[in-house]
Design brief:
The complex is a heterodimer of chains A (87) and B (375). Chain A is mainly α. Helices cover 78% and strands 0% of the residues of chain A. Chain A has helices at 3-24, 28-48, 52-76. The radius of gyration of chain B is 23 Å and the shape is globular. The chains are: A mainly alpha (87), B mainly alpha (375). Chains A and B meet through helix 2 and helix 3 of A and helix 5, helix 6, helix 7 and helix 8 of B.
């Protein structure tokens, strides 16, 4: 078991678990947190593949822009501020 | 000797010291512990462990340097606000040194306050938002070198991260997510409005910011801080790209949310904006991180437009870099107390209809300069 293997397993596990969390979370903002975690873990995996530029663009485009657009989409559509409060 | 080699030397010395004591202790134990002892000792002395610890030590050095600068920045902020608004500013805490210790005192006060999570708040988001905000802001510092040798992104043979400047901009752009999360999870209409405003502002001002940085990348032909600064050894980029420099500074002010653009936390309208529900050291962390971001912004403007660490040789490179970053911050503070806060619609019009065309014009100028063969 080398260091790289350990780091790879950690990153792969966090990407998979957060991807599962995206589809299973009750609050929709929680699934955005999972999405960000997944994107960041994938960016780290790109760094492990010596693809620095792809990793940085992944951060810039996906974490920086796409999630904010999704959050805006959630917040500008008509709904309660926090859904769990309705019950 | 660069920072990596310096830290490696210190870590190597420490590991040798600890291992000597370790093996000396091992002599007193019965023989069947011997194997375990040597295994642990060999692991500690192995090259992988050494380089890991070296990187951790580099992180500590860079963060400590950054936080000392942040204390200076906050002090400058308070003193300069005082001078511009005609009062003294901090004076008694740290009597001989111009009240420099006032921020440490405020930090201590925030440390001993109770941390309160509102009952109706979304606990996960509420506790995670400061972590993301602080983490993404400190990550900017990882790639900003003060000189060729003093940077965390160098490896042992002096090679640099190939796209460091792009990484700094990418890390800058994570913050709106944390701010929206903080604003939403506090479950309070003021924090939500503040978070929405902040995210809208950061998103719309990020585009001119990155376009201006793109013109610098075009002229320098590289994403790498060292290459960009080397390309400015003849002429600093703010002379050919003056429009870009001005637009970059305005966008930086919007990104770090200082006065003319501080409408996410407009006190008169939104209590304290998206930090309303945060108390104690969490608020302290937000406050500190805003200063970290203005420090990183000053360092970015310095490295991209003001010639980085180039300067007359009677001072070391790192000092020149810091002097320029401090000058950028002082200009920010000067503007802060000179102009009134703008409205949200004015801010969006200003960003999309004025700054964005100017940034594109600046990119065009950079392209003409590059294709004309001047750079």
């Amino acid at each position: 078991m080398t260091w790289e293997m350990l780091v790879f397993l950690f990153l792969a596990a966090s990407a998979l678990i957060s991807a599962l969390w995206v589809i299973s979370a009750k609050e929709i903002v929680h699934s955005v947190i999972g999405l960000v975690t997944c994107f960041i873990a994938i960016a780290c995996l790109f760094i492990m593949l010596n693809a620095e530029f792809v990793a940085i663009v992944q951060l810039l485009v996906y974490v920086g822009a796409v999630t904010i657009v999704i959050l805006f989409g959630i917040m500008l559509t008509k709904r309660e501020i926090m859904e769990s409060e309705r019950k | 000797m660069n920072l990596y080699q310096f830290c490696y030397g210190i870590i190597h010395w420490l590991v040798d010291l600890v291992n000597n004591i370790w093996y000396w202790l091992g002599d007193f134990l019965p023989w069947y512990f011997g194997d375990l002892f040597t295994t642990i000792g060999d692991f500690v002395a192995s090259e992988g462990h050494l380089s890991f610890m070296t990187i951790l030590a580099e992180c500590v050095v860079v963060i400590v340097v950054a936080l000392i600068n942040v204390l200076n920045f906050l002090w400058i902020f308070r003193k300069l606000s005082g001078r511009i608004l005609d009062f003294y500013g901090p004076y008694y805490v740290g009597y001989g040194i111009g009240g420099w210790l006032q921020n440490l005192a405020d930090g201590m006060k925030l440390f001993i306050k109770e941390i309160i999570v509102p009952t109706k708040a979304d606990r996960l988001g509420f506790l995670l938002a400061p972590v993301i905000f602080v983490g993404s802001s400190l990550a900017i510092l990882a790639v900003i070198p003060f000189s060729v040798d003093f940077g965390i992104s160098t490896n042992e043979s002096g090679e640099y991260v190939s796209a460091g400047a792009l990484f700094a901009l990418a890390a800058f752009s994570i913050a709106p997510f944390a701010i929206l999360l903080a604003g939403w999870s506090s479950n309070n209409k003021y924090t939500l409005i503040g978070g929405m405003r902040s995210a809208a502002q950061m998103m719309s001002y990020e585009i001119p910011l990155i376009l201006c940085a793109a013109s610098v990348f075009l002229l320098a032909g590289s994403f790498n801080f060292v290459d960009i600064v080397d390309a400015q050894s003849g002429m600093w980029f703010f002379i050919p790209l003056f429009i870009g420099f001005v637009v970059f500074l305005i966008c930086l002010m919007a990104e770090v949310e200082i006065r003319p653009f501080d409408l996410p936390e407009a006190e008169a309208e939104l209590v304290e904006g998206w930090t309303t529900e945060y108390g104690g050291m969490r608020f302290g962390l937000f406050y500190m991180t805003t200063a970290v971001r203005s420090y990183a912004g000053g360092a970015l403007a310095t490295a991209l437009f003001l010639g980085g660490w180039h300067g007359p040789s009677f001072l070391p490179d790192e000092i020149w870099f810091l002097i320029k970053a401090y000058i950028v911050f002082t200009v920010f503070m000067w503007l802060t107390w000179s102009v009134p806060r703008i409205r949200i619609d004015q801010m969006l019009v200003f960003g999309w209809r004025r700054l964005l065309p100017l940034a594109v014009l600046n990119l065009l100028i950079a392209a003409i300069l590059k294709s004309g063969g001047w750079f």
